[in-house]
Design goal:
This protein is an alpha/beta fold and about 325 residues long. Helix content is about 40%, strand content about 15%. It is built from 12 helices and 12 strands. The strands form 2 sheets. Strands 2-1-3-4-5-11 form a 6-stranded parallel sheet, with helices on both faces. α1 crosses α2. The chain is elongated and about 70 Å long. The relative contact order is 0.12.
C-alpha cells in the first residue's frame, strides 16, 4: 500500500512548520510566494491530497474542540477544573462547543473521541502529555489540529505553558537573598514541567554561590496521603529542610497535617509553598503561599492556537505566573 502522507510529513521535508503547510494546503494565503512554491513542490512530489477531515473542516461553520485529559493518581484536581472552566467561558463567548474526555490508557485509544470523532473535531487540547504520547500520533495521522498544555516533549508540537522555570527561579532567588538554607521539592513525577521547576530552584542557589546539595528533590508525591507520610518519615530520619515546595496545593494539605501532628509550626519553624492557588489555599491556617497560574490567559491562548484569530501565529506561548505570599512563609522571607 502507498504511504498516506500528512501535513507533518510535508513540514518535515519542506523545512516549514505544520501551520504554514496547512495554510498552503487550505489556500489560506498569508504565505510568502517562495515558501508556498517550496511546499507545493513537496506536495506534488508526494502526491499528497487532504483527507476527508480537512475537506469537511473547510465547509464546517460550527467549531468543536476536545479536551483530552490523561488521568493520574489523585485525579481529578481542582486546578484542572479551574482551567476547564476558563476554556468553557472563552469558548462560550466564541460560539465553540467544548467536549471533555478522560483518557485512561493507550490500549483504549480506539474508544477515544480522538479516534471516533474525526469528522467533527476542529482541534484537541492535550493535558498530561507523555513522551511518545499515542494521542499525538493518532491526531497527526488524522490531520486534527492539537495543542499541548505545558511544555511538549517534541519541540515541533505547539504548546501553551506556565513559565515554570522563570517563576521558580524568581521565587527562590528572593528566598536565597533573605537567607534560605535549604529546600525540599515534593513533586509528582519526573516530567518536563518538574524538571523546569527543579532547574529554576537549582540555578537560583547557584547564582548565590550556595551548595546545590541543599536542594533535595523527591518524586512520587502524588496526593495528600503520600505528602503526609513523607513528612513523617523525613522527621523520623532527621532530614528536614527549612522550606518545602510542593507542586500542587491540594497535596500541601498532607504536609500541613503532618506538621500539625509533629508540633512543628508552619510559618514559624518551617515554610511551605504550593503551586496552583486553588480557592482553599487562602482559607487554610496558616494561609498557603503559592504560585498562581494566569488561568484565563492560559485558557485563552490554548483556544486561540486551535481556532486562530488575526495576529495569532505563535507555536509556543509561555504565560507568566505570580507568587502569592501568605502566612505559611517564615517572617524573614516575607
Amino acid at each position: 500500500m502507498q504511504k498516506k502522507y500528512t501535513i507533518y510529513d510535508i513540514a518535515k521535508l519542506s523545512g516549514f512548520s505544520p501551520k504554514t503547510v496547512a495554510r498552503v494546503v487550505n489556500n489560506e494565503g498569508n504565505v510568502a510566494k517562495d515558501t508556498e512554491e517550496k511546499i507545493k513542490s513537496v506536495i506534488d512530489r508526494l502526491g499528497y491530497t487532504p483527507n476527508t477531515y480537512a475537506k469537511n473542516l473547510k465547509i464546517k461553520k460550527d467549531k468543536t474542540i476536545l479536551l483530552s485529559i490523561r488521568t493520574t493518581n489523585g485525579f481529578p484536581l481542582q486546578w484542572m477544573q479551574m482551567i476547564i472552566e476558563q476554556v468553557g467561558i472563552i469558548c462560550l463567548e466564541k460560539g465553540i462547543t467544548v467536549l471533555v474526555e478522560y483518557f485512561y490508557d493507550e490500549e483504549n485509544l480506539e474508544k477515544s473521541m480522538i479516534s471516533k470523532s474525526v469528522n467533527y473535531l476542529d482541534g484537541v487540547i492535550l493535558f498530561y502529555e507523555e513522551e511518545n504520547d499515542v494521542r499525538i500520533s493518532a491526531l497527526r495521522a488524522r490531520n486534527i489540529p492539537f495543542v499541548v498544555f505545558e511544555r511538549a516533549y517534541d519541540n515541533s508540537v505547539r504548546y501553551v505553558s506556565n513559565n515554570n522555570y522563570q517563576v521558580l527561579y524568581s521565587v527562590f532567588d528572593s528566598l536565597c537573598q533573605k537567607g534560605l538554607s535549604g529546600v525540599e521539592l515534593l513533586l509528582r513525577s519526573d516530567t518536563l514541567v518538574n524538571r523546569d521547576r527543579v532547574n529554576g530552584v537549582v540555578d537560583a542557589f547557584k547564582s548565590h554561590g550556595l551548595d546545590v546539595s541543599n536542594v533535595k528533590i523527591t518524586y512520587g508525591i502524588g496526593n495528600a496521603e503520600s505528602a503526609y507520610s513523607h513528612i513523617l518519615k523525613e522527621h523520623e530520619q532527621g532530614d528536614m529542610k527549612e522550606v518545602f515546595f510542593i507542586s500542587g496545593d491540594e497535596r500541601a494539605i498532607g504536609v500541613y497535617k503532618a506538621f500539625e501532628e509533629l508540633g512543628i509550626k508552619i510559618g514559624e519553624d518551617v515554610s511551605v509553598i504550593g503551586f496552583d492557588d486553588i480557592p482553599l489555599s487562602s482559607y487554610i491556617s496558616p494561609g498557603l503561599s503559592t504560585i498562581r497560574p494566569a488561568y484565563y490567559d492560559l485558557a485563552k491562548n490554548l483556544v486561540l492556537m486551535l481556532i486562530p484569530e488575526d495576529g495569532n501565529d505563535e507555536d509556543h506561548i509561555v504565560v507568566p505566573a505570580s507568587f502569592i505570599k501568605r502566612d505559611s512563609l517564615q517572617k524573614k522571607f516575607m
